[in-house]
Amino acid sequence: MKKLLAIIVSGALFLPLLSQAQKKITVGNTGVSFYSPCQPVFDKAQSKDSSTVYNGECQSGGITYGFILVKLLHRRADLREAEKITADYLKYLNQSFNITHAEGYKDGLRLNNDERTRGIHDQWADASQNKWLVNAWTNGAFIAVLYTYGINLPELPANRFLQSLRFPQ
Questions:
Q1: Rounded to an integer, what distance in angstroms lies between the CA atom of residue 35 and that of residue 8?
Q2: What are residue 162's phi and psi, to 5 degrees?
Q3: DSSP assignment of 111-130
Q4: How many C-beta neighbours within 10 Å does residue 25 have?
Q5: Which phi and psi (to 5°) does residue 114 adopt?
Q6: What is the 3-state secondary structure (H, E, C) of 52-113?
Q7: How many helices (H) and strands (E) in the chain?
Q8: What is the rounded (10 degree) CA torsion for 3, 9, 15, 16?
Q9: pLDDT digits (tens, 9 = 90+) for 74-104
Q10: How many whole angstroms separate alpha carbon 39 and alpha carbon 105?
Q11: pLDDT band of 22, cuts 50, 70, 90
Q12: Which pLDDT score is estimated for 95?
C-alpha cells in the first residue's frame, strides 16, 4: 500500500513537468528553430518589401506562446542597423497587438553569448490586461520575435521559451 501511495504521489508531482515539456519547432525550411510547450500552426506571407514572414501561436496552460520570423530580403551586415530595424518592428507590433503599456527596451542582448546576434527584451501589457514578455533577435538575415502573454504569466516557462531560439549556422 505504501508503494502504491508513493507511485501515485510521485506521478502527481511529475505530471505538471510533462505539461511543460518543450518540443523543438523548425520554421519552414529556414533552419531557424525554437522550443515550445505547444505546436504552433504557421502562416507564411510576404511583407511590403517582399521579405518572407512566418507567424504562429499556440496555447498551453492558459498562456499564449507566439513566434514571428522575418527572413529579410536583404541581409544586414551591420548588426547595429539590424537591431534598429528589429526595434522598429517591435514598435509596429505594439500597435498591431493593441499594447497599452511597455516597460521599455533592454537592447544589446546576445543570443547564447553569440556576438553575431543582437536582441531586445521588453515587457508589455495590453487592453485586455494580459501581461506580455517579448524577446526579439536578429542575426542580420532574420528577425525573430518570441512572445508570451496571459493574465497570469509564470516567468519560468516563458523565459525558457523566449531564450530557446536557434539561428542556422
A1: 29
A2: -65, -30
A3: GGG-TT-EEEEEEEEETT--
A4: 19
A5: -85, 115
A6: EEEEEEEEECCEEEEEEEEECCCCCCCHHHHHHHHHHHHHHHHHHCCEEEECCCEEEECHHH
A7: 3, 10
A8: -160
A9: 999 999 999 999 999 999 999 999 999 999 9
A10: 28
A11: confident
A12: 93
Of 89, 87, 88, 93, residue with least CA distance to 106:
87
Task: State the cell numbers at 8.
Answer: 501515485
Name the amino acid, one letter, at 44. Answer: K
Owner of C-alpha cell 505594439: 94
What secondary structure letter does DSSP report for 40?
P
Cell triple for 16 = 505538471
Could you tell me how far CA 55 lies from the centroid of its own chain?
11
Grid cell listed for 148: 508570451
DSSP, collapsed to helix, strand or coil, labels residue 110 as: coil
By the 10 Å C-beta count (0-12 exposed, 13-18 middle, 19+ buried), 33 is classed as middle
Instruction: Please state, in angstroms and rounded to a whole number, the distance separating the CA atoms of residues 169 and 161.
Output: 20
Residue 98 corresponds to which cell in the numbers above?
493593441
Percent of the chain whose pLDDT exceeds 90: 75
Please tell me the pTM assigned to this model.
Answer: 0.85
